[in-house]
TrEMBL record:
Protein name per Swiss-Prot or TrEMBL: ATP-binding cassette domain-containing protein
Membrane topology note: Peripheral membrane protein
UniProt source species: Leekyejoonella antrihumi
UniProt GO molecular function: ATP binding; ATP hydrolysis activity
SUPFAM superfamilies hit by this protein: P-loop containing nucleoside triphosphate hydrolases
Similarity comment: family membership: Belongs to the ABC transporter superfamily.
Subcellular location: Cell membrane
Pfam families the UniProt entry points to: ABC_tran (PF00005)
Keywords tagged on the record: Antibiotic resistance, ATP-binding, Cell membrane, Membrane, Nucleotide-binding, Translocase, Transport
Lineage top rank: taxon: Bacteria
GO biological process: response to antibiotic
Length: 304
Protein backbone atom coordinates (compact mmCIF):
# COMPACT_ATOMS: atom_id res chain seq x y z
CA UNK A 1 0.00 0.00 0.00
CA UNK A 2 2.94 2.31 0.76
CA UNK A 3 6.48 1.67 -0.43
CA UNK A 4 9.33 4.10 0.30
CA UNK A 5 13.06 3.76 -0.28
CA UNK A 6 15.59 6.43 0.62
CA UNK A 7 12.73 8.90 1.19
CA UNK A 8 13.92 12.44 1.95
CA UNK A 9 12.26 15.76 2.65
CA UNK A 10 14.14 19.04 3.04
CA UNK A 11 13.02 22.57 3.77
CA UNK A 12 15.87 24.80 2.64
CA UNK A 13 18.95 23.60 4.51
CA UNK A 14 16.90 21.62 7.06
CA UNK A 15 16.49 17.91 6.38
CA UNK A 16 13.24 16.78 8.02
CA UNK A 17 13.26 13.22 6.67
CA UNK A 18 16.64 11.61 6.08
CA UNK A 19 16.45 8.67 3.71
CA UNK A 20 13.94 6.32 5.34
CA UNK A 21 12.69 2.95 4.06
CA UNK A 22 9.04 2.05 4.81
CA UNK A 23 6.58 -0.62 3.66
CA UNK A 24 2.94 -0.63 4.74
CA UNK A 25 0.94 -3.75 3.90
CA UNK A 26 -2.73 -4.01 3.05
CA UNK A 27 -5.06 -4.29 6.04
CA UNK A 28 -2.54 -3.47 8.76
CA UNK A 29 -2.25 -0.60 11.20
CA UNK A 30 1.17 0.99 10.83
CA UNK A 31 2.49 3.66 13.16
CA UNK A 32 5.06 6.43 13.09
CA UNK A 33 6.26 7.07 16.64
CA UNK A 34 8.68 9.81 17.61
CA UNK A 35 9.24 13.06 19.48
CA UNK A 36 8.40 16.49 18.07
CA UNK A 37 10.56 17.24 15.04
CA UNK A 38 11.27 13.58 14.32
CA UNK A 39 9.86 13.83 10.77
CA UNK A 40 6.57 11.99 11.30
CA UNK A 41 4.21 14.64 9.94
CA UNK A 42 6.52 15.45 7.03
CA UNK A 43 6.46 11.77 6.07
CA UNK A 44 2.68 11.62 6.38
CA UNK A 45 2.25 14.66 4.15
CA UNK A 46 4.36 13.02 1.44
CA UNK A 47 2.29 9.83 1.70
CA UNK A 48 -0.87 11.94 1.47
CA UNK A 49 0.42 13.38 -1.82
CA UNK A 50 0.21 16.97 -0.58
CA UNK A 51 3.95 17.58 -0.08
CA UNK A 52 6.47 16.82 -2.83
CA UNK A 53 9.23 14.27 -2.27
CA UNK A 54 12.70 15.83 -2.20
CA UNK A 55 14.56 12.61 -3.02
CA UNK A 56 14.10 8.86 -2.97
CA UNK A 57 11.26 6.63 -4.14
CA UNK A 58 7.68 6.73 -2.89
CA UNK A 59 4.75 4.71 -4.17
CA UNK A 60 1.27 4.90 -2.67
CA UNK A 61 -1.27 2.36 -3.92
CA UNK A 62 1.30 1.55 -6.60
CA UNK A 63 1.32 5.13 -7.91
CA UNK A 64 3.81 7.98 -7.85
CA UNK A 65 2.53 10.98 -5.83
CA UNK A 66 4.47 13.34 -8.08
CA UNK A 67 2.49 12.36 -11.18
CA UNK A 68 -0.63 10.68 -9.79
CA UNK A 69 -1.46 12.93 -6.82
CA UNK A 70 -5.18 13.41 -7.59
CA UNK A 71 -5.72 9.68 -8.17
CA UNK A 72 -3.99 8.84 -4.89
CA UNK A 73 -5.86 11.47 -2.88
CA UNK A 74 -9.19 10.16 -4.24
CA UNK A 75 -8.47 6.81 -2.57
CA UNK A 76 -7.17 8.16 0.75
CA UNK A 77 -8.90 9.32 3.90
CA UNK A 78 -7.03 11.96 5.89
CA UNK A 79 -7.63 12.94 9.50
CA UNK A 80 -5.36 15.92 10.25
CA UNK A 81 -3.83 16.69 13.62
CA UNK A 82 -6.17 19.64 14.15
CA UNK A 83 -9.90 19.33 13.55
CA UNK A 84 -10.82 21.28 10.41
CA UNK A 85 -14.58 20.92 10.53
CA UNK A 86 -16.72 23.72 9.11
CA UNK A 87 -18.43 25.44 12.08
CA UNK A 88 -20.96 27.08 9.74
CA UNK A 89 -22.37 23.67 8.80
CA UNK A 90 -24.32 21.21 10.94
CA UNK A 91 -22.80 17.82 11.77
CA UNK A 92 -24.45 15.91 8.92
CA UNK A 93 -23.85 18.79 6.49
CA UNK A 94 -20.11 18.52 7.11
CA UNK A 95 -20.26 14.99 5.72
CA UNK A 96 -22.58 15.84 2.84
CA UNK A 97 -20.47 18.73 1.55
CA UNK A 98 -17.19 16.83 1.93
CA UNK A 99 -18.60 13.82 0.09
CA UNK A 100 -19.50 15.97 -2.89
CA UNK A 101 -15.82 16.91 -3.28
CA UNK A 102 -15.21 13.26 -4.21
CA UNK A 103 -17.90 13.30 -6.88
CA UNK A 104 -20.39 11.19 -4.94
CA UNK A 105 -24.00 11.61 -6.07
CA UNK A 106 -26.41 13.32 -3.67
CA UNK A 107 -28.19 10.03 -3.07
CA UNK A 108 -24.95 8.13 -2.43
CA UNK A 109 -23.50 10.78 -0.13
CA UNK A 110 -26.71 10.97 1.93
CA UNK A 111 -26.66 7.21 2.48
CA UNK A 112 -22.95 7.24 3.29
CA UNK A 113 -23.36 10.14 5.72
CA UNK A 114 -26.08 8.32 7.65
CA UNK A 115 -23.97 5.17 7.76
CA UNK A 116 -20.96 7.07 9.11
CA UNK A 117 -22.98 8.99 11.67
CA UNK A 118 -24.12 5.65 13.06
CA UNK A 119 -20.55 4.31 13.01
CA UNK A 120 -19.30 7.40 14.88
CA UNK A 121 -22.25 7.28 17.32
CA UNK A 122 -23.36 10.76 16.24
CA UNK A 123 -26.76 10.02 14.74
CA UNK A 124 -28.53 11.95 17.48
CA UNK A 125 -26.19 14.91 16.83
CA UNK A 126 -26.82 15.05 13.07
CA UNK A 127 -28.45 18.50 13.22
CA UNK A 128 -26.23 19.90 15.97
CA UNK A 129 -23.72 22.69 15.47
CA UNK A 130 -20.10 21.62 15.37
CA UNK A 131 -19.21 24.07 18.16
CA UNK A 132 -21.68 22.30 20.46
CA UNK A 133 -19.82 18.96 20.19
CA UNK A 134 -17.35 17.69 22.77
CA UNK A 135 -13.72 17.14 21.78
CA UNK A 136 -14.28 13.41 21.40
CA UNK A 137 -17.35 13.95 19.23
CA UNK A 138 -15.45 16.36 16.97
CA UNK A 139 -12.67 13.81 16.57
CA UNK A 140 -15.13 11.06 15.70
CA UNK A 141 -16.80 13.37 13.18
CA UNK A 142 -13.42 14.22 11.62
CA UNK A 143 -12.67 10.51 11.19
CA UNK A 144 -16.17 9.89 9.81
CA UNK A 145 -15.57 12.67 7.28
CA UNK A 146 -12.25 11.07 6.30
CA UNK A 147 -14.15 7.84 5.55
CA UNK A 148 -16.80 9.44 3.31
CA UNK A 149 -15.08 8.25 0.11
CA UNK A 150 -14.63 4.68 1.43
CA UNK A 151 -10.81 5.03 1.36
CA UNK A 152 -8.33 2.19 1.03
CA UNK A 153 -5.85 3.93 3.33
CA UNK A 154 -6.77 6.07 6.33
CA UNK A 155 -4.08 8.54 7.44
CA UNK A 156 -4.36 9.71 11.05
CA UNK A 157 -2.06 12.40 12.44
CA UNK A 158 -2.17 12.36 16.27
CA UNK A 159 -5.77 11.05 16.29
CA UNK A 160 -6.47 11.30 20.04
CA UNK A 161 -4.40 14.30 21.18
CA UNK A 162 -6.28 16.30 23.81
CA UNK A 163 -8.99 13.71 24.41
CA UNK A 164 -9.94 12.32 27.80
CA UNK A 165 -9.40 8.56 28.48
CA UNK A 166 -13.02 7.61 27.73
CA UNK A 167 -12.97 9.40 24.36
CA UNK A 168 -9.60 7.87 23.48
CA UNK A 169 -10.81 4.33 24.18
CA UNK A 170 -13.99 4.94 22.21
CA UNK A 171 -11.91 6.10 19.25
CA UNK A 172 -9.58 3.11 19.54
CA UNK A 173 -12.62 0.83 19.29
CA UNK A 174 -13.76 2.59 16.12
CA UNK A 175 -10.30 2.30 14.53
CA UNK A 176 -10.04 -1.38 15.47
CA UNK A 177 -13.39 -2.01 13.76
CA UNK A 178 -12.16 -0.24 10.63
CA UNK A 179 -9.05 -2.42 10.51
CA UNK A 180 -11.22 -5.51 10.84
CA UNK A 181 -13.16 -4.27 7.80
CA UNK A 182 -9.94 -4.20 5.76
CA UNK A 183 -9.03 -0.51 5.94
CA UNK A 184 -5.27 0.08 6.02
CA UNK A 185 -4.43 2.57 8.79
CA UNK A 186 -1.31 4.72 8.96
CA UNK A 187 -1.00 6.90 12.04
CA UNK A 188 1.33 9.08 14.04
CA UNK A 189 1.03 9.29 17.80
CA UNK A 190 2.79 10.50 20.93
CA UNK A 191 0.92 8.02 23.11
CA UNK A 192 2.81 4.78 23.72
CA UNK A 193 -0.26 2.92 24.95
CA UNK A 194 -2.08 3.99 21.78
CA UNK A 195 0.70 2.58 19.60
CA UNK A 196 0.65 -0.70 21.57
CA UNK A 197 -3.13 -0.94 21.27
CA UNK A 198 -3.52 -0.04 17.59
CA UNK A 199 -0.35 -0.82 15.66
CA UNK A 200 0.53 -4.15 14.10
CA UNK A 201 3.91 -2.66 13.20
CA UNK A 202 5.56 0.69 13.74
CA UNK A 203 8.76 2.64 13.29
CA UNK A 204 10.36 4.82 15.92
CA UNK A 205 11.68 7.98 14.26
CA UNK A 206 14.27 10.34 15.69
CA UNK A 207 15.84 13.35 13.97
CA UNK A 208 14.38 12.37 10.60
CA UNK A 209 15.67 8.80 10.62
CA UNK A 210 14.27 5.42 11.66
CA UNK A 211 15.76 4.23 14.94
CA UNK A 212 13.84 0.94 15.14
CA UNK A 213 11.09 -1.01 13.38
CA UNK A 214 8.85 -3.93 14.31
CA UNK A 215 5.73 -4.91 16.19
CA UNK A 216 5.31 -3.41 19.67
CA UNK A 217 6.19 -6.77 21.26
CA UNK A 218 9.24 -7.23 19.02
CA UNK A 219 10.53 -3.76 19.89
CA UNK A 220 10.11 -4.36 23.62
CA UNK A 221 11.91 -7.71 23.39
CA UNK A 222 14.76 -6.24 21.35
CA UNK A 223 15.33 -2.96 23.16
CA UNK A 224 14.19 -3.55 26.72
CA UNK A 225 13.83 -6.27 29.35
CA UNK A 226 10.76 -8.20 30.42
CA UNK A 227 10.29 -6.16 33.59
CA UNK A 228 11.35 -2.91 35.23
CA UNK A 229 11.86 -2.35 38.96
CA UNK A 230 11.44 1.27 40.02
CA UNK A 231 13.10 2.19 43.33
CA UNK A 232 12.57 5.49 45.14
CA UNK A 233 15.04 6.59 47.80
CA UNK A 234 15.59 9.89 49.57
CA UNK A 235 16.18 13.08 47.61
CA UNK A 236 19.71 13.22 46.21
CA UNK A 237 20.55 9.56 46.98
CA UNK A 238 19.84 7.92 43.64
CA UNK A 239 23.11 8.75 41.87
CA UNK A 240 25.22 7.33 44.71
CA UNK A 241 23.09 4.20 45.14
CA UNK A 242 23.10 3.33 41.42
CA UNK A 243 26.60 1.84 41.67
CA UNK A 244 25.50 -0.50 44.47
CA UNK A 245 22.79 -2.13 42.33
CA UNK A 246 24.37 -1.84 38.87
CA UNK A 247 25.23 -5.56 38.71
CA UNK A 248 21.67 -6.63 39.57
CA UNK A 249 20.09 -5.51 36.30
CA UNK A 250 20.77 -5.45 32.58
CA UNK A 251 20.62 -1.67 32.71
CA UNK A 252 20.20 0.92 35.46
CA UNK A 253 18.85 4.38 34.72
CA UNK A 254 19.16 7.20 37.24
CA UNK A 255 16.32 9.73 37.37
CA UNK A 256 16.00 12.62 39.83
CA UNK A 257 13.29 10.81 41.82
CA UNK A 258 14.04 7.09 41.29
CA UNK A 259 16.26 4.31 40.00
CA UNK A 260 15.03 2.23 37.06
CA UNK A 261 16.37 -1.33 37.06
CA UNK A 262 15.73 -3.11 33.76
CA UNK A 263 15.64 -6.83 34.48
CA UNK A 264 14.02 -10.09 33.39
CA UNK A 265 12.71 -10.85 36.90
CA UNK A 266 11.72 -7.76 38.85
CA UNK A 267 10.74 -9.43 42.12
CA UNK A 268 14.00 -11.40 42.26
CA UNK A 269 15.95 -8.22 41.61
CA UNK A 270 14.02 -6.43 44.34
CA UNK A 271 14.83 -9.22 46.81
CA UNK A 272 18.51 -8.87 45.94
CA UNK A 273 18.31 -5.12 46.55
CA UNK A 274 16.86 -5.79 50.01
CA UNK A 275 19.53 -8.43 50.58
CA UNK A 276 22.15 -5.72 50.29
CA UNK A 277 20.57 -3.80 53.11
CA UNK A 278 18.95 -1.16 50.90
CA UNK A 279 15.45 -0.04 51.89
CA UNK A 280 13.71 2.02 49.21
CA UNK A 281 10.96 4.37 50.31
CA UNK A 282 8.74 2.98 47.55
CA UNK A 283 9.02 0.24 44.94
CA UNK A 284 7.16 -0.73 41.78
CA UNK A 285 7.70 -3.79 39.61
CA UNK A 286 6.03 -3.58 36.20
CA UNK A 287 6.36 -5.02 32.73
CA UNK A 288 8.40 -3.16 30.15
CA UNK A 289 6.38 -1.00 27.78
CA UNK A 290 6.84 0.72 24.46
CA UNK A 291 7.52 3.91 26.41
CA UNK A 292 10.69 2.34 27.83
CA UNK A 293 11.79 1.54 24.29
CA UNK A 294 10.90 5.01 23.06
CA UNK A 295 12.85 6.79 25.80
CA UNK A 296 15.86 4.53 25.36
CA UNK A 297 15.99 5.20 21.62
CA UNK A 298 15.16 8.93 21.61
CA UNK A 299 16.27 10.09 25.04
CA UNK A 300 14.45 11.88 27.86
CA UNK A 301 15.45 15.44 27.02
CA UNK A 302 12.81 17.79 25.63
CA UNK A 303 12.85 18.55 21.90
CA UNK A 304 11.68 22.04 20.88
Amino acid sequence: MVHARGLRKTFGSFEAVRGIDVDVHRGEAFGFLGPNGAGKSSTMRMIAAVSPVTAGTLRVLGMDPQTDGPLIRARLGVCPQEDSLDPDLRVRENLLVYGRYFGLSRRAVRARADELLEFAQLTDKAKAKVDDLSGGMKRRLTIARALINDPEILLLDEPTTGLDPQARHSLWDKLFRLKEQGVTIVLTTHYMDEAEQLCDRLVVMDKGAIAAEGSPLELIREHSTREVAELRFGVGQHEALAARVADLADRVEVLPDRLMLYTEHGEETLAQVHGRGLRPLAVLVRRSTLEDVFLKLTGRSLVD
